[in-house]
Write a structure and sequence with these properties.
- The structure holds 2 protein chains of 2 kinds.
- Chain A is mainly alpha-helical.
- Chain A has 6 helices and 2 strands; from the N terminus they run ααααββαα.
- Chain A has a two-stranded antiparallel sheet with strand order 1-2.
- In chain A, strand 1 and strand 2 form a beta hairpin.
- The longest helix of chain A is centred in the middle third of the chain and has 34 residues.
- By secondary structure, chain B is of the alpha/beta class.
- Chain B is globular and about 65 Å long.
- Chain B has a 7-stranded mixed sheet with strand order 1-3-4-5-6-7-8.
- The relative contact order of chain B is 0.13.
- Chain B starts with a helix and ends in a 15-residue tail after the last helix.
- Classes of the chains: A mainly alpha, B alpha/beta.
- Strand 1 of chain A pairs parallel with strand 2 of chain B, so a sheet runs across the interface.
């Protein structure tokens, strides 16, 4: 994939997370002709690159948010049972654990950064809608 | 928005949290399995059952079994009672095939009460659960649901609980075998799932599992697996 826009970011990720993001961006890339058709936008390499960048960022955000969210849900449910800890191997991932606290901080920092970059609006919705918006707004430079 | 600035800002966040990301990559599947474990209990409670958490002796808190390694009595499980014979819920459980001596490890097992020892049996090793004691089960994937994944899951159902492929559904409140996925349907996977009922295949496919969990928060109740809730 021509993922040049994502490379500087994804090099910071562990291999398995990096591969998940690349694989997802590849799946979006393979659907580009349909996305352009549905958006009624003339195929354009610059727009395609921007869309793939946003897809990669969205997948990264989803991985982190869903991990935090599933953990929060589990811990919320388990609070009824008054467990002192929730151990995966030697790591406590319970509600008051350092692990949960750090994961929450990662999520908050990423959400805040994407918010400041005005990208949070692109984290949901169909890719044809996203493509329409970026083709009209010319927000990227 | 300047692309280079976005790249720099996001890279900075990822660099700052490098340790968490390394840990997350190692624990991603286990977190999902934990969510599947608690989600299944939420299902039973939504059906009026009671669930008791049983932690292994001598270990503080809840201990999550994340692989085939280790014996089930050294990890946490739930004991579930209600308007049905009591059952136990285990994680990463080894089960005998319905047909032969093969042994499979399932992510979640709903089993006949006390069919798995509470402690290491004296004078022998515990190899796996006998197939006759398996009521239903769950498998967890952090993938989109695509046709081959469905075919593989049906294969597991065939090996372990073939009755669900022969027109026999589960008795309420037990679910038919469940496939839980973080992803959505891709290709024509949803069409395949929609055909199962007419084919007398009884399984539960729970796509977008994290969204389902968010919908049935502990305060609102409900099951993450039932259409009436989701």
């Amino acid at each position: 994939m021509s993922s040049s826009a994502l490379d500087p970011i994804l090099i910071k990720l562990p291999y398995s997370l990096r591969q998940q993001v690349y694989s997802y961006a590849e799946s979006v890339r393979s659907n580009l002709p349909q996305i352009f058709r549905e958006a009624s936008v003339e195929p354009n390499p610059r727009l395609a690159e921007q869309l793939l960048f946003l897809a990669g960022i969205r997948k990264l955000f989803d991985i982190i948010s869903s991990s935090l969210w599933t953990l929060e849900n589990s811990n919320s449910f388990l609070s009824e049972y008054k467990v002192s800890s929730v151990r995966i191997g030697n790591t406590d991932v319970g509600a008051k654990s350092e692990y949960r606290h750090k994961l929450k901080r990662l999520f908050t920092d990423l959400e805040s950064t994407l918010g400041e970059a005005r990208l949070m609006g692109y984290m949901k919705g169909s890719y044809s809608d996203v493509l329409k918006r970026i083709s009209i707004s010319n927000e990227f430079s | 928005m300047n692309l280079a600035e976005v790249q720099k800002a996001v890279s900075r966040v990822l660099g700052k949290h490098e340790g968490v990301l390394v840990d997350l990559s190692a624990k991603q599947s286990a977190l999902l399995e934990l969510a599947a474990f608690t989600g299944m209990v939420e299902h039973y409670k939504s059906q009026g059952s009671e669930a008791e958490l049983i932690n292994p002796k001598g270990k503080p808190g809840l201990s999550v079994k994340t692989s085939t390694r280790g014996d089930p009595w050294n990890f946490s499980r739930f004991h579930i009672t209600g308007d049905h014979p009591p059952v136990d819920l285990h994680m990463n459980l080894k089960v005998r095939s319905a047909y032969d001596a093969g042994i499979y490890c399932i992510d979640l097992g709903v089993v006949v009460e006390s069919s798995i020892p509470d402690t290491k049996p004296q004078g022998g090793n515990w190899e796996c659960l006998d197939n006759s004691q398996l009521i239903t089960f769950g498998e967890v994937k952090k993938l989109n649901i695509y046709p081959m994944l469905l075919a593989q899951f049906i294969g597991i159902v065939h090996e372990l609980t073939p009755r669900f492929l022969n027109g026999i559904s589960a008795d309420t409140p037990h679910l038919p075998p469940v496939l839980m996925s973080l992803g959505h349907f891709s290709a024509n996977a949803q069409t395949i799932v929609e055909s199962y009922k007419n084919r007398k295949i009884f399984v539960t496919i729970a796509e977008n599992y994290d969204s389902r969990l968010s919908y049935v928060s502990p305060s609102s109740g409900g099951s993450p697996f039932l259409a009436s809730t989701w």
